[in-house]
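Late entry, zinc ion complex.
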Amino acid sequence: MDYEKILPSYPLSANPQNSTIVERLKIAIQKSGRLHDDSMKLLKECGIEISNGVNKLKTEASNFPLEVYFLRDDDIPQYVEDGVADIGFVGENVVYEKNKKVEVVEQLGYGKCRLSIAVSRSEVYDGVSYLEGKRIATTYPVLVQKFMDEKGINAEIHEISGSVEIAPGIGLAHAICDFVSSGSTLFMNGLKEVETILSSQAVLIKNPNLSNDKQQLIDKLLFRIKAVKKSKNNKYILLNAPNDNLKEIISLLPGMKSPTVLPLAESGWSSVHSVLNENEFWDIIEKLTAAGAQGILVIPIEKMII
Ligand code: PRT
Ligand code: ZN
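Prediction complete; structure with ligand written out below:
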């Protein structure tokens, strides 16, 4: 690995005010590709200002002690293990495939996909035993081999670096193992998904041997990441409730502590404010309407700190 290109020219920065040494956290994110934009967006939502570095190898945050390295996703676990970067945003799949000494700290909620085995739509697939003695083309040989070992199947794993989905069509393999998100690539290539080996999403990884100062910076960043994630899973809800049904309506609403209730100008009515989780959202809305709630407004939450 060509570390010279990426090693920071100055890992520590001097604070001009009192010349105290301020440590900076070094984060590796994907240079370009499926995780780049969401990784940059997450940092922005955490209030961290960085210039977009598509044509750069390295940049810095202007308002957080953070240096950002833009790398190929496959290289991120290695750089974090070696301490060239302290932390990284990378697909869980890459972490498992590369099997480096890094710690997974937090799931980030984007880059969701599953590693699946697919065969031609015309094949009759009757379980994993179908794969015995077959040739499987993949970019992820370690994960596929692990799955085959767990299932006690002997298959020939054929590693290729791209365009895995065309392998059965050109007679290179009987099956493939690749990432699927919408499923349209499989569909367009006449394939069907038959086994899921792994579900994946982007995660925050860290080097396990960091100084206390670096760990404190990670905790600070993690606090913000959790607040952003929580806000995405929750909605702020405002509604008008007839006072006669107020008790029932309040009992349906969890709120952060309990719902806020304010009197409306029109007597006999109250305005009720609360926070609802995405998973139970529609269920509760239906019950609220049935209980007489009106004028329901649902508002996205930008940050949520509990
Ligand atoms: O250049 P670099 O090496 O950094 O990037 P890359 O080309 O290796 O990776 P990239 O950008 O394609 O993916 C980065 C990460 O995104 C992966 O490691 C996964 O963690 C995650 N991810 C999420 C996906 C997908 N969804 C995905 N759908 N990675 C790849 N795909 C591919 C899949 O391989 C297949 O070719 O998309 C196609 C299928 O997509 P659908 O929507 O048609 O099912
Ligand atoms: Zn890659």
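Helices lie at 36-45, 76-81, 92-98, 141-151, 184-188, 212-232, 246-252, 281-290. Will revisit in the morning.
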